[in-house]
Amino acid sequence: MKIKAVLMPGQGSAYVGMGKTLCEKYEIARKTFEEASEAISCDLKKMCFVGDFSEIVKTENSQPAILTTSVAAFRVLQENTDIKPHYYAGHSLGEFSALTCAEAIDLADAVRLVRKRGELMATAVKDTEGLMTAVGKLPMEMVAEVCNRISEPGNIVCISNYNSAKQNVISGNQAAVIEAEKQFSAMGASLKRLNVSAPFHSPLMQPAAEEFKQVLKEYEFRKPIVPVLSNVTARPHVAEEIKEKLAEQIVSPVRWEESMEYLKEQKIRMAIEVGPGKVLKNLMRANFSNVKALSYDVSDDAFEIEKLVLLDKAVPFVSRCMGLAVASKNLCTDNSYYEQHVVVPYRKLQDMQEKIEKEERQASMDEARDAKELLVEILNAKMVDKAEIEQKLNRLFIDTEVTV
Fold this sequence. Notes:
Blueprint: E1 4-8, H1 20-25, H2 27-40, H3 44-50, H4 53-56, H5 59-81, E2 87-90, H6 94-101, H7 107-124, E3 130-136, H8 140-150, E4 157-164, E5 167-173, H9 174-186, E6 190-193, H10 206-216, E7 228-229, H11 242-249, H12 256-265, E8 270-273, H13 279-287, E9 292-295, H14 299-313, H15 317-327, H16 335-358, H17 365-381, H18 386-400
Parallel strand pairs: 1-2, 1-8, 2-7, 8-9
Antiparallel strand pairs: 3-5, 3-6, 4-5
């Protein structure tokens, strides 16, 4: 089974129409939006489907909207495939979406919490005119050097997101960010202003962090059923420290590149972005090209995700044949015969399985028939009783749900 991680996006991923197709097709998505809307007395469907973009990107709106869209998408994926992720990671706000899907907090509480988080963040920056900009094509050290050189009391800019080796996000006062943009542009960097309404993950958020710490005391968190990575530590949350880290996250940089490195160390084979957009899919591909990265918000990807998850859950027919062949006791004493009728057909099974795995699919019916015949040849060569062979074949067909 492939080790899978679910990635959940942050505020820069909002767009008008997000979640609409899900709600048109799936009752579970509609119910998710209704539950979240009721929790904060706000029509999230209207906001997400036909709202004004300038309203959606306001942090007090985008946070509950994106969380709801992400959770709705995950519930649809779960309903369609019964997916069981091995890890969750959420980018900034996405950490709350991940904790919700990992059952550490109920959806209604999560929506109320991020709504309040957004309100506190908006209030914290009303007088600072903050900005956030993604900086590409420059190493982190050069970005940090420029930020340190420009920053002064009352006018700061800092790295707020460590996204990849050559993509970081800066955050701070408007004047400082604009000056940094000018210098980065002269250095050959690529620049993109984020569609957010505040300088998140910077010292300017300290008032919001202090108030949010008090708000968190009113909520209960459970131990996640699956590890959820913290943006602050780039490691799985410790249940007793979830509230502390979520408050700290507001003023701390998002350690996304380190989080992806951690997932890679855990040998994940598939990363599925669940929520609006494909930013995290692209970052994973940029950092680790050998990890299969897909976005459930992209129609072609969604089809492939569901296919791959379902295939991954199925018992591989050829692999099961190999297991039955190895587990059967050998009574053959003729080494030459054993080589020809056990070793050679087993190697054919190995070659067949390697081809199937490389192409990321299940065995075709023709391959299944060939594999069964090779298994029968091996069992006969090992002098397994015919009644036992019949039992093994019946077990094979039951386990794999394939009959040939």
